[in-house]
Amino acid sequence: MAETRAWKLLLPRQLRHLPADLAGVIGVVILTNLAALLPVVSDTPVRIVAGLVFVLFIPGYAFIAALFPEAGSGPTADEENGTNPQADGIDGIERTALSFGLSIALVPLVGLVLNFTPWGIRLLPILVSLSGLTLVLTAVAAVRRWALPADERFRVPYRTWLSAGRDELFSPASRTDAVLNVLLVLSILLAAASVGYAITVPKDGERFSEFYLLTEDEDGELVADGYPTEFRQGEGRSLIVGIGNQEHERTEYTVVAELQRVERVGNETQVRERSELRRFQPTLGHNETWQRQHEVTPGMTGDRLRLQYLLYRGSPPATVDQSTAYREVHLWVNVTG
């Protein structure tokens, strides 16, 4: 006990007297920032758990703590008569429910404001904004709570809860209570294990790869529009080739770009002449995106030539055509001499 008090004396007075629930809010803010930014922790379930608590509960709790620094209780006869000194406060259930509701309201508002700033809706701006807002509200809540008499301040009776829980678990009033306590503990452990398993071993969704072509507009933005269709032999025009890996594993790709002279025979399109323009061989992890500029310089001339990009997972086979490709995109172009 003496050692515990000794290290507390090293803290500033405001922190030493900070209410336990507000100290917990600051702790969750720090934990979430570390879990989201530290490379060692950012890929673990800790980031998901801390992030959910931070987004869905903490900002609202800090806001409610700032609005209602006084203790509260459920409706009583004294409250109806106006003689209850805690009538202006709210009880724990109301405080918890409002915390969830206000968090769900505050977080989108922060995102909306960020959307109109140069930083945009990204991880770091969201972390900084929500953390800053929560810490400011926590400071206001602490100041307002300190301004009240000690017996009117809201406090979380965690020592009472722990004592009551310990007595209920280890000193049950009857054998029936003991059996119910064991069942309750087993149910909580089972629920926690189920949630932990769902977080740590997520079910794989559909496996696929995105494959697309883009162009650059006048503002330098990449768009799926305005593709070049008129070329001159030997003169290059740019396209952007893109791949998105949603295969749930690291994947090696090969992209083959060809210019083809094709002929329609019945219901089939047959290639009469082909010219390979370039190959790309990127390797992507799951959920990674790859984009490269391709300067298309046609060597053959003609109308309605097919500029085709073929995507393969791994190395392509000896026969490179649409029937062997994993994905395919193409443009119809005209090339003059």
UniProtKB/TrEMBL annotation:
Residues annotated as domain DUF1616: 25-334
Pfam families found in the cross-reference section: DUF1616
Top-level lineage group: Archaea
InterPro entries the UniProt entry points to: DUF1616, UCP018671
Parts of the chain that traverse the membrane: 20-41, 48-68, 97-116, 123-143, 178-199
Keywords: Membrane, Transmembrane, Transmembrane helix
Signal peptide limits: none
Protein name: DUF1616 domain-containing protein
Organism: Haloarcula taiwanensis
